[in-house]
Amino acid sequence: MRLTKTGLATMAALWAFSVPAFAADLETQIRAVLNKPAIEGTRWGLRVEDKEGHVIASIAPDERFQPASNTKVFVTTAVFDAMARAPFPNTGNGVRIESDHGRQNIVLIGRGDAMMKDTPDCEKDCLAALADAVVANLRIKGGVKRVGDVIGDDSFMPFERWIISDRIRPGTRTQISALTINDNELTVLANPGDAVGAPGRAALEIAAPEMEIVNQITTGAPDSRAEVMVEMIPGTRQIRLFGSLPLGGKEQRLDFDIDDPADYAAIRLAQLLRERGVKVTGHPRARHAPMGPVDLIPAPVAPAIQAKDLSTLTPPDLIEDLTVTSKVSQNLHAHLFLKKLALTQGFSPTTPAGRIVLNQTIARAGLPASAYDFYDGSGLSPDNRITPRAMVHYLHWVEAQPWAADWRKTLPIGGVDGTLGRRMKNPVLQGKVFAKTGTLLAANALAGYLVAASGRELTFAIYANDRPSGAPSVLPTMDEALALIAAAN
C-alpha cells in the first residue's frame, strides 16, 4: 500500500502522540510504586534519560534534594578531571618519619595519605614499617635505644574540626587530618561482667595506653537487651562507654571516630616503639597548623626542625583510593580528596578552597548555580543539595570525558559489590546498575547508569528525602522503581 502525504503526516502525528503517552503511563506506574502508604510523606525526585538525552521519566526534576553520598560523584570526577590536566598534587607522598638531631624526638608526618593502617593484617602502607625504620636508625645509649617525644604532625593541611551535627551517626569517619590512621576510627570490645549488676569490661582492640577508657557499662539480666554506646570526649583522650549488656551475652564491637587522628597516630607509634624495646622518654603529642583567616592563602605551618628523614611509606595507587572511596562510600577519603583539589589551583588544602575548585569543575559541566550546593566532600553535610535534572546532566557530561571509563569502574555495581552488593539481586538489575548510593538519616539517593532490558543504557538519578521517622527503608521501593523502568525499556 502506498501512503499519501496526508497518511504519512497522520502516522507521524500518531507516533509523536504515542511516545509521551507511553512515558506518561510509565510515570503513572512509577508514582504508584513510590507513593506507598508505609512511606507516605517521603519527598521523591527522579530523572531518567537515554544516552541521547531523551526523557524516559521525570518527577520533580528541578526540586533540590539532599544528595547524601551522591556528593562523592562530584568529588571523585573532579579528581579524575584534575588528573587528566596535570599530575595530581601529593600523589605518591606517603606518611614519612623524621628524627631531629637536637632532642631525639621522632616526628610522624602526614601529607594526606588516607590509606595508612595499624592493624594486625596490614600488608602495605603500614605504621609498623615506620616503627621498624626508627629502631633500625637509633643509636644505643647505655645499652638502651631511646627517643624523646613522639610527634604526630598533620600541619600539611590546616587543622579543621568536622561539622558537629546530631544527624551524623558515630562511626562515620568525620575527623579529617593530613595524618590518617585506620580510617581515623577506633574499635572498643565490650563484654558483660560476671554477675547481674556488676560493671562490664571494655578494652581497645588495638592497644593505646595513653587512651583512657571510662567504663560505665553495667551487667543486666540474661534476658535483657544489649544497649551500649561509646563516645570520645572532644579535646581529650577519654573514651566513655555506657549502657548495659546481658549476663552471658556476646562481645560487642563498638566503632567510633578518633577525636584527634594526629595525636592518636603518635600514641600508636610510641606504643609500637615500646614493643620493639625502645624507651620513650618523652610523650606522644600532636602538631597542627591553624586555619588562616583567608581561605586561599596557604596557612602557616609549624616551624621546621633540623631533621633527618628516616623512612617514607608508599601509599597505594591513587585509583585504588578513588575506588575504595566510591565502592564503600568512604567519607574520610572523599573529604581528603576535596581538600587536595585545592592544591591543583595552588590554594591551601582546606575545605573552603577545595569547594572553589569543585565548583569550577561543575560549572564547566554546564550546571546552573541554582541547581546545587556542596559544603563537604563526603555528603555528610545536611546542607548539600542537587536537582535530579542537574545530576543527570552532569552524568552525561562525565560520559563525554576521556577518563569516563576509568571513573565508571570505581562505581558500585548492583547486586555485585560495594554499597550495592546486597541490593538488586533480581535479574532485571543485577550486574546492570552502575551507580553511587547515598544515605543520611532521612535521605536516600542513587545516581548513575542502568542497562535496560532492551540493552540500551539509561542515565538516572533518584532521590528520597524527608522520610518520616519510623517509616521503613525506602531502598526496596527505590529498587522496585528502577526495575520497572529497566523492564519497560
From TrEMBL:
E.C. code: 3.4.16.4
One example GO MF annotation: serine-type D-Ala-D-Ala carboxypeptidase activity
Signal peptide: 1-23
Superkingdom classification of source: Bacteria
Spans through the membrane: none
Keywords for the protein's UniProt record, in alphabetical order: Carboxypeptidase, Hydrolase, Protease, Signal
Keyword hit for NAD: no
Pfam families registered for this protein in UniProt: Peptidase_S13
Keyword Transcription (UniProt): no
Name of the top EC class for this enzyme: hydrolase
Matches recorded under InterPro entries: Beta-lactam/transpept-like, Peptidase_S13
Protein family (similarity comment): Belongs to the peptidase S13 family.
Name this polypeptide is given: D-alanyl-D-alanine carboxypeptidase/D-alanyl-D-alanine-endopeptidase
Source organism of this protein record: Novosphingobium humi
